[in-house]
Every structure is written in structure tokens, then in C-alpha cells.
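Q: How would the C-alpha cells look for this protein?
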Amino acid sequence: MRHNIATYAGLTLAMILFSATTSHAWLYFHKPAFKGQVFDAETRQPLEGVAVEVVYYKRTFGLGPESGTVPFDVREAVTDKNGMFYVSAYTTVISPNAISSFVKILFYKPGYGGDYYFGDFTSHVGMTGDDRERFFSEDFRKEQNLLVDPNQGKVGSNTEWHKIVFGIIRLPRAKTREERWNESSVDIYREFRHKTPVLNKLLMEEYKYLGIK
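A: Here is the predicted structure in C-alpha cell form.
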């Protein structure tokens, strides 16, 4: 019996260690550190005080409301006077019926739009989840051609090769009250609000400006 338990434990440990080398790992969730620099899309000046929210997702298998791809944790950063932010690498253990999935990186500052532009694009472009992670995790300011969709959401849109400077983004301004109202709807799931103090503070300031109770 002891031999069987030891064998089972050894096999389980081996599976965990093996899964650590795969992108969709069993019991193991890992994402690299993320770094970037945020600019005003119009002035091209660095933006200080932007809330940066990294939302981590996992894919759960089974029945019930918890199955599917769901967020399970959040980390927050804020840009400095040079528009720079940094979020350290993240590693944790997840449930046996789940595998690691993608991350979302959200940016919020009152008076600005939630979408962000890569490189010299003047509107939001489509990029695969893996490339988005690479964009913020590989060599900062590295230049590389990536497949992006410059007309995402439009009829006839298609992916094209474009040179992208890693880690550099620009936030568009929300110029009307309606635009600011729409952007204030950005929110992290309520169960994670205790982990997003900067975002909470900025949203409260914006709600006061917009007269939202």
C-alpha cells in the first residue's frame, strides 16, 4: 500500500513538473512579468497615474456556472511620471480540472479611453492573446513584425504584418461627457475590487465628476 501511495505521489509530482514547461499547464499557472510605457495619444507625452489592471484567466472543465474560461485573480500597478509600469511574474497552483488561459491588461485614467493603440496606429487594432502577452513581457522597446488586424470589427478586415515597438502604447482621450460616461463602466469583477485600490479611487473621482451616485 505504501508503495502504491509513493508511486502515485511520484507520478503526480512528475506531471506537475512536466506541466510547468507547457503553455497550458495542469495544476500550474504561470505568466511572465509585464512592463510597458503609456503615452497620451495626442500630445505623445508620458501619462502618469494610469491604473493598470492585469486580469488572469483560467479555463475550467466540468458542469455548472464555474465551467468555461473565467477570471480568477487580478494584479494592479500604476504608471509613474514617465508613464512606466511593471507587474511582476505570477505563478500559482490551480484546480485539477482547470488549465491556464489568457490575461487581459486594462488601462484606466479619467478623461481617457479604455482601448489603447499599439505603435503608430491611430485606432485600436486586433492582436492575438499570445502576442499581447509577448508585447508586454518580452524585451522592452524591441521592434518586431507581428500580425495585427488594423480594422478590427469592420467588414473586410484582415490581418497584416506591421512593425510593432514592444511595450509602447498610447491612450486616446475621451473628449465628450458621453465618452467619459461610457469609459467609466470599466470595472473589475466585484470579488476582486479589494485588489484594485487605484482603480477604485479613480472611478470614484470620475463618478463624482459625472454626477453618478
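The longest strand covers residues 68-78.

Confidence is low (pLDDT under 50) at residues 7-24.

Upvote if useful.
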